[in-house]
Amino acid sequence: MKNVTDSFVFLGHWPSAGSFGFNTDILATNPINLSVVLGVLIFFGRGVLSDLLDNRKQKILNTIRNSEELREGAIEQLEKAQARLRKVEMEADQFRVNGYSEIEREKLNLINSTYKTLEQLENYKNETIHFEQQRAINQVRQRVFQQALQGALEILNSCLTNELHLRTISANIGMFGAMKEITD
């Protein structure tokens, strides 16, 4: 009970405050302020965040579908390359006497180039997916921060009247004057 009365006695040092006072105890007011700001952010940002995440999810799914189509194209290319390989093998049987070593080199080059192409396409798909995920995360972070900041500014602007602003400035000037007298 003594702490409660001490806090009201402390408010008596603000002559411009009158019957209305501010609790200047930072340890008591910061958790309350933070909980209010977090509550407002969660209340207003929840729907926007879910919409943003849904949109990003759709974009990522579309990117994955596109990558799958690229993969299917690569598989078709592989099948064509395999068909070509079979053809080359048949020709190799026909011309084995004349140029077996040259045909084998062509076969290996064809297989290696096909696997390199497939590997490059797979790497491109994975890089695209990773890039899109990072971009989506960055965009969501940026929008949530902007909306949170905008909401906080709107709340502050709606709560801060001219009279309250002037009284707060006067009180702070008085506190700085008292601090200056103490240091002098």
Quick structural gist:
The chain is mainly α. The chain has helices spanning 2-11, 26-94, 96-159, 162-183.
Can you walk me through this structure?
This protein is an all-alpha fold and about 180 residues long. The protein has one domain (about 35-165). About 90% of the residues lie in helices and about 0% in strands. The protein has 4 helices and no strands. The protein has helices spanning about 1-10, 25-95, 95-160, 160-184. The longest helix has about 70 residues, at about 25-95. The radius of gyration is 36 Å and the shape is rod-shaped.
Rg (C-alpha, Å): 36 Å
List the secondary-structure elements in sequence, H or E: HHHH
Low-confidence stretches: 7-15
Mean pLDDT: 80
**Distance N to C terminus:** 36 Å
Count of helical stretches? 4
What is the β-strand count? 0
What is the domain total for the residues?
1
Helix proportion range:
over 70%
Roughly what fraction of the amino acids lie in strands?
Answer: under 5%
Q: Can you tell me the overall shape?
A: rod-shaped
Major sheet, described briefly? Answer: none
Q: Label the structural class.
A: mainly alpha
